[in-house]
TrEMBL record:
TM annotation in the entry: 59-84
Source species of the chain: Orthonyx spaldingii
Domain PSI: 1-54
Subcellular location: Membrane
Keyword Signal on entry: yes
Segments of skewed composition (Basic and acidic residues): 93-134
Region described as Disordered: spans on this chain: 89-134
Domain of life (superkingdom): Eukaryota
Name listed for the protein in its UniProt record: PTTG protein
GO biological process, one term: protein import into nucleus
Amino acid sequence: DCRQYTNRSCEECLKNVTCLWCASSKRCMEYPVQRILPPADLCELRSARWGVCWVNFEALIIAMSVVGGTLLVMLGVCCCCCCCKKKSKKQVSGRDKDDERAAREREKRRVRQEERRAEMKSRHDEIRRKYGTV
């Protein structure tokens, strides 16, 4: 029973993990497991100790909030970075495809132009032979 450690020390009270130490009243009591935080009429958060004597519930809540908020911000930043990388990769791959398509078009135009030149040269050669200018 936790009440037997009342008016003793926090360390003695918290040897039993089911106990809660209230520093302001020096009372040791059963932790109210039906509630996450001990109610204010039982013990103020700044005086309540559970698990270890050097951390009160108020500091624990603030520290957990800061750590949780930091983790959420970091997670958000990581998600944004991943999304930006994916978008930039898609844009680069899209540019690469556009560049490849443009290069194929240029090559086709060059080949057609060479064919036309060869055709024109053969026609000119034929005309020269016909009129004997060769």
